[in-house]
Amino acid sequence: MARLTECSGDKFTVTYDSVEKLRKGEVTELPSHPYMYAYIPKPMLAGMLSKFGLWVVYGIVHGSPEGSLNEKFPEIKTTSVKEVIGAWKGH
User: Fold this and answer.
1) At 46, phi and psi to the nearest 5?
2) pTM for the predicted model, two decimal places
3) What residue spans define the domains of the chain?
4) Spatial distance between the Cα atoms of 86 and 66, rounded to a whole number of angstroms
5) Residue 27, CB-side half-sphere exposure with 13 Å CA sphere
6) Helices (DSSP H) in the chain: which residue ranges?
7) Burial class (CB in 10 A: 0-12, 13-18, 19+), 40
8) Which residues does 77 contact at the CB level (< 8 Å), separation at least 6?
9) Alpha-carbon distance 91 to 78, whole Å?
10) How buried is 39 (Cβ within 10 angstroms: 0-12 exposed, 13-18 middle, 19+ buried)?
11) Confidence class of residue 84 from pLDDT cuts 50, 70 and 90?
């Protein structure tokens, strides 16, 4: 989140959901969530997102660079979030 704040100049509220909260199928509601309720009911969305959170906590889902496209193709320069937002803002 700090990187996004640095890039955009916007302030973000950072919230950490506890494992206990995730185990109950609860997550902190984000501003984008209400738009999804017409397609996925709120309890179902919260349940799915809490499962994803638990997968991260337990190491089932992780962002290891091993075997990543960046590792396989080091000659390709990826664009950072900072660069994308800078281009969008005209920097």
Assistant:
1) -60, -40
2) 0.66
3) 2-63
4) 29
5) 17
6) 2-8, 19-23, 33-36, 42-57, 69-72, 81-88
7) middle
8) none
9) 18
10) exposed
11) confident
How far apart, in whole angstroms, are the C-alpha atoms of residue 73 and residue 71?
Answer: 6
**Helix, strand, coil share (%) of the chain residues, nearest 5:** 50, 0, 50
Is residue 57 within 8 Å of residue 35, measured between CB atoms?
no
Q: What is the pLDDT of residues 7-30, one digit of tens each?
A: 667 777 889 999 999 999 999 999
Contact 5, 11 (CB under 8 A): yes
One-letter amino acid identity for 30? L
Tokens of 55: 């997968």
